[in-house]
């Protein structure tokens, strides 16, 4: 644990709180990609298979449960909540997310740290998380206008991974045997995908205007 990882975790937590606030306060999931949320649920379920076998710390266990529970709750709301599901627009959420799942799993079989069941699914979760935001970004570009809470959600989600890059840099210089190169590479790819969004988010903040993405 270091300050960069802690801030990254808190930023990730804030992004989830913002999304839950949007859904429960407005009873709407307009502008949110169900496919991205399903991918994140799959990411956490695959990554935390060690939840009941390996104990690291109370903090670690609580965060795992929070990420799994919140992601499943969001998917449930968008699919089954009588009011929230009516605001979901499947005409805009058209990205073929199953292709990302298949490509990530194939890559995990080819590139991994150890050929074990748990490590394969860990690598799979890392690769899938790197591209899980794509359906959300495509949806926002298709709709053009981005409401305030949705914009903040995506911003904090991108910022979380940026802090994790700083965490990996810190660990590289402070640990003798740093080996999480899969995480580093995937994190760079993931953060790069947010570059366009960050640019327009900054312009919107600077000019105090509504966030709009080019179609």
TrEMBL record:
Topological category with respect to the lipid bilayer: Multi-pass membrane protein
Q: Name one GO biological process term.
A: protein retention in ER lumen
Record field: transmembrane: 55-77, 121-141, 153-173, 179-202
Q: Which GO terms describe its molecular function?
A: ER retention sequence binding
Record's keyword terms, sorted: Endoplasmic reticulum, ER-Golgi transport, Membrane, Protein transport, Receptor, Transmembrane, Transmembrane helix, Transport
Q: Does the keyword Cell wall biogenesis/degradation apply?
A: no
Entry annotated with the keyword Kinase: no
Matches recorded under InterPro entries: ER_ret_rcpt
Against Pfam families, the record matches this protein to: ER_lumen_recept (PF00810)
Give an example GO cellular component term for this record.
endoplasmic reticulum membrane
User: Which cell locations does it reside in?
Assistant: Endoplasmic reticulum membrane
Q: What family is it from?
A: Belongs to the ERD2 family.
**Protein name stated in the entry:** ER lumen protein-retaining receptor
In which organism is this protein found? Fraxinus pennsylvanica
């Amino acid at each position: 644990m270091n300050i960069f990882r802690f801030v990254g975790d808190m930023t990730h937590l804030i992004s989830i709180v913002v999304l839950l606030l949007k859904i429960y306060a407005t009873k709407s999931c307009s502008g949110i990609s169900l496919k991205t949320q399903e991918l994140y649920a799959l990411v956490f379920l695959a990554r935390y298979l060690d939840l009941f076998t390996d104990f690291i710390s109370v903090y670690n266990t609580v965060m795992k449960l929070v990420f799994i529970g919140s992601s499943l709750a969001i998917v449930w709301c968008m699919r089954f909540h009588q009011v929230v599901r009516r605001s979901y627009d499947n005409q805009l959420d058209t990205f073929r997310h199953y292709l990302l799942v298949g490509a990530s799993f194939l890559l995990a079989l080819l590139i991994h740290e150890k050929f074990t069941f748990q490590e394969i699914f860990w690598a799979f979760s890392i690769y899938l998380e790197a591209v899980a935001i794509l359906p959300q970004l495509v949806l926002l570009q298709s709709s053009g206008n981005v409401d305030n809470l949705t914009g903040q959600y995506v911003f904090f989600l991108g910022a979380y991974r940026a802090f994790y890059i700083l965490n990996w840099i810190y660990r590289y210089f402070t640990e003798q045997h740093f080996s999480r190169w899969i995480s580093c590479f995937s994190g760079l790819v993931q953060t790069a995908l947010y570059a366009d969004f960050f640019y327009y988010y900054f312009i919107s903040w600077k000019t105090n205007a509504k966030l709009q993405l080019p179609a």
